[in-house]
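Field reference: "sequence" (input) and "structure" (output). Example, Nuclease HARBI1:
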Amino acid sequence: MARSFFRKLLTYLSSDDELDAVINAEADGESSRHHGNRQRRKFIRRDHIQGHECLFRDYFSENPVYPSNLFRRRFRMSRPLFLRILNEVEAYEPYFVQRRDNAGRLGLSSMQKITAALRMLAYGVTGDFMDEYIRIGESTAMESLKKFCKTIVTIFSDEYLRSPNANDIARLLVVGEQRGFPGMLGSIDCMHWKWKNCPAAWKERSFIFTELAQGRAPPVNYTINGNNYTMGYYLADGIYPKWPTFVKTIPSPQGNKKKNFATAQESARKDVERAFGVLQQRFAIFKNL
């Protein structure tokens, strides 16, 4: 019964220090009742306040130790963007709000938890990598990472993961025509990330491909050589199926006309390849995909 109580209590604990204290208290109780020796988890006083103050002094004070260019390099974003994300996440997810434990000690700040999560994403490091600097335990860092990712998707998906609206489509069509491809909505590519426990209902499914497979692309209107078209398309490479919504290069083109088209298509498609390249360089967690 006591063990069940402690499991529920751990849900509300904000740091490994609190977790260690609870486990040790339980171990003492078990040992006194059963007169047996029980290996205790060592209690570590991480001094969360010192970790927060060091982080704040280095990057967020009025005159920080490290300038803005180093902030951008280490956090993979500007300081104003980081603070916007921090404020949004803290307002939405109570887990990131700094609070006191049962002993009245202040726990980790949202700045510490979010910094730990971002460093793991940016550098691909383990959960205990930031312990010495930020003063955050491994299990807390991992929990912060999971909650941070879920919260980011929840908060920003409507703005950044939505389908293009009429204004977006109009802008994309202008850009496509300027690049020599009227009706082009963009380039498409993918990275492969094996999901071991992917739900069966989601296997080999994609909202994008379901729409395109059924011939449903965002509605557009454009003219090529006097012919009117109402379905946009994406520039793709050879791995994609032969659908009207994909315009691919011509392998081994013969003649100037086909050679010019292949050159133009491959040149225009470099935008998505560069985007993936920047993403992999900026966030090491994607590097081996």
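The first strand starts at residue 184 and ends at 187.
Residues 24 and 40 are 6 Å apart (CA to CA).
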